[in-house]
Amino acid sequence: MIEKLLPYIPIAAKKSLSELLNNYRFHLKITKGRKTKRGDFRATLPIATISINNDLSEAQFLITLVHEIAHLETHMNYPKAKPHGKQWKQNFQRLMLPFLTNDIFEDEILSPLAKHLVNPKATTDSDLILSTQLQLKVNCLDLNKKFIFELKSGDLFLINNRVFKILNKRRTRYECLETKNQKKFLIKGNALITRIEPKKNTHGDD
């Protein structure tokens, strides 16, 4: 399985990941990118299934894979445990430990990742700094994209083919108005968007 994963992971993680994979049996699916999730674990029979998106950065892919293996470990030993409860947190922390090195993660990712693992959440998106650094490393990142926290009140932007206007900042989220239906939404500050440039005045001097 490790050879199948080499195009998707930091090469320095090969040895530790190979050792980790030797401890588990599961069917791995590498899927097309999904907007709602980066990966998932399913306790299918006769063998569990883990799927990971193919459009992640190497760092995102590795973290997501270990995240899902932690679900597998938790299911094996605590089948009735909460999906991201105490047992999963402990397993994720332990399984990620061998990968917390500068050979595998750059400092910009390693430091916030270590802080995230003190009390890991269901997704790295809950940590603004970590998720921002992870998204910046996506190889196919559109250079026209920006993070919503880079904009200011009143700016227009496009996300999922819908046009929004920034109203106010609320801690880690932004209150935004969808211009088409005038409905308000809260959008995470690390959301990748396309800024709509204001129209320039094309009239010359009178």
Overview in brief:
The chain has 206 residues and is an alpha+beta fold.
Protein topology:
Layout: H1 2-5, H2 14-21, E1 27-31, E2 39-42, E3 49-53, H3 58-77, H4 86-96, H5 107-116, H6 128-136, E4 145-147, E5 156-159, E6 162-170, E7 173-178, E8 183-188, E9 192-196
Parallel strand pairs: 1-3
Antiparallel strand pairs: 2-3, 4-9, 5-6, 5-9, 6-7, 7-8
Helix pairs in contact: 3-4, 5-6
Structural class: alpha+beta
Distance between the termini: 71 Å
Radius of gyration: 20 Å
Taking pLDDT < 50 over at least 5 consecutive residues as the criterion, the unreliable ranges are: 202-206
Q: What fraction of residues sit in β-strands?
A: 15-25%
| Average residue pLDDT | 89
Total strand segments: 9
Write down the overall geometry.
elongated
Strand order of the largest sheet: 4-9-5-6-7-8
In N-to-C order, the SSE pattern is HHEEEHHHHEEEEEE
The largest pleated sheet is described as:
6 strands, antiparallel
How many DSSP helices?
A: 6
Fraction of residues in helix: 25-40%
